Amino acid sequence: MTPQATPADPAVFTSRNPADPSDIVIEFPGCGEEAVIQAAQRARQAQAEWLGAGVAARSEALCKAADAIERAADEMTGLVIREVGKPLAEARAELAHTVSIWRYYSRVLYEPSGALHEPSAGPGMLLTRRRPLGTAGLITPWNFPLAIPSSKAAPALAAGNAVILKPAPEATACALHLAEALKDVLPDGLLQVVPGGPRVGEALVHLADVVSFTGSTAVGKAVVRTATACGTPVQAEMGGQNAAIVLPDADIPQAAAHIAAAIAGYAGQKYTATSQVIAVGSAREPLRDALAERLGAMPAADPGSASTICGPVISLAARHRVAEMRMSALAAGACLLAGGADGHTAPRSGWYVNPTLLETVPDGHELLEDVVFGPIAVLQEANGLDQAVHLANAGRQGLVTSLHTTDLESALYGSDHLETSMVGVNAPTTGVDYFPLSLGGTEGSGHGPHEEGRADLDFYTSRQTISLLPGGS
Asked: Where are the beta strands (DSSP E) in 346-454?
C-alpha cells in the first residue's frame, strides 16, 4: 500500500514546548499501517450508525461537542500555548473560533440538502440530495491545532461521515485532547486520531473515502497525487506568500499597524502571514519608518503573556531557516530595517525569532520566492498600482493580499486584478473573517474545492439524483 519512496517514520515522536525545549509535552509511538487499517474498519462501522441516527441526533451531538470544548477551554488554551507556542490572546481566540465552528455545523444541518424538480413529461418528481462519502481522512498542521481539525471534522460529521484525523506530530497532544473532550458526545469510533508521520498520512490517504489536507505545498502536492491516483476526492490548502500593498492615500499608521501584526503575529506562522510589503510611490518613506517602529516594538517574548504578539517559532530548524534567509539576503545586498543586530535571537532559552524587515532584497532571492513561515518580510517599492499588483501576482502561491487605500476606485481595481483568492481592503492579511463563507488558495496555495462554510457540506458528500415516478399501468 505504502510506496517505498515514503520516508520511514521514527519509532518515537517527541513534541516539545517551543518556548522551553527542555519541556517535553508528549512522547508517543507512531501508528503503523495496520493501526490505520483497523481505524478505518471501526470508522466504517460507526459511520453507518451515525448516518442512520438522523439529522436531529447529529445536530445534538455537534452542539454537545461545542459545549464540551467550551468547558475545557482554559485547559486547552494552556495546552495550545505550551505545545505550539501560540501567544495567549491568539490561543484564546482559536478556542472561541473552534467552539463557533461546532455550533455552526450543528445548526446548518437543518437546511435543505437538495432540490425538487418537475419531470420533463408526465407525473412524478425529480429529487436531489447529498449523501456522505464514508470516512474522511484529515491531515492537519500544527499552527492551528484545534481550529483546523475542527473546521474539517465538524462539516464531515455533520454530513454523516466518520473522521480519522492525522495531526502534525508537533500538535499531537492538542489533537488527542480534542478527541478526549469529544469522546463522551460522539459515538465510539466516529472520530479517531492516528498519530504519526508521513507513513501514517500515506496509509490514511489510501484508505479514506475523501481527503482534506492543510499544510506545506510540497506535502500537499504529494497528498493530491496519491488521492487522485486512488480516485479519491481531495482538497488541499497549502502555503501562502502574501503581499500587502500600500498606496500613498492610505492611512499609513493604520496600515503599518495591520501589516506589522500580520508579519509578527504568532511569529509569522500562519499561511495568511504577510511576507511581502509593496509601498506605492510616496508611501515608501513614511511606511518604512512606521513599519520598522511597529516591528521593533514587537520583540519575540513569552507566549503565556497577554501582551505578547510574537512568540517562539515551532522548532530549532525553523529558527535556523529564518536566520539563514536573513543572512543570505544581507550578504546579497539587502538592508536591515528591523530585527536588531542579530535578528534571530531573544534573551530566552526557547526558539525565538525577533520580527525582521528587509529592503533592497535582490530579485530572485528565495525570500521573494518561497514561504518562510517565520516573522520576516521584505519591503519593496512600486511606481503605481499596476506595478504593485504585478509584483503581488508574481508569486507562486496565491492565498490572500491586503490593499490599503482610501480610494474606492483603487480598491475595486485591486480586487479585480489581484489573483489571490482572498483580498482584504484596509485589513491585514491575517485574521481573515470569511467563515461561514468558503476560503481557499489559487496556484500553489490550493487544490480542489474551497473549504469552510456550506462549501464543505458539498465536499464531504456526493450528489444523488432520484427520479420518483408513479407505479402501475
From this structure: 356-359, 376-382, 397-398, 400-404, 422-425, 442-443, 446-447
Closest listed residue to residue 461, CA positions, set 116, 171, 156, 198: 156
* DSSP-derived secondary structure for 194-230: ---SHHHHHHHHHH-SEEEEES-HHHHHHHHHHHHHH
**DSSP code for 265:** G
Q: What is the mean pLDDT of residues 437-457?
A: 71
Whether the Cβ atoms of residue 421 and residue 439 lie closer than 8 Å to each other = yes
- Measured distance CA(114)–CA(110) in Å, rounded: 12
Report which of 57, 2, 31, 16 is spatially closest to residue 351, judged by C-alpha positions: 16
The vertex-369 CA angle with 303 and 447, nearest 5°, equals 80
How large is the average pLDDT for residues 117-126? 87
0.90 exceeded by pTM? yes
Q: How many CB atoms lie within 10 A of CB 116?
A: 10
Q: Which residue has the higher pLDDT, 180 or 218?
A: 180
Cα–Cα distance for residue pair 353/267, rounded to 1 Å? 7
pLDDT tens digits for 56-90? 999 999 999 999 999 999 999 999 999 999 999 99
Q: What are the backbone dihedrals phi and psi of residue 21, each rounded to the nearest 5 degrees, phi first? A: -60, -15
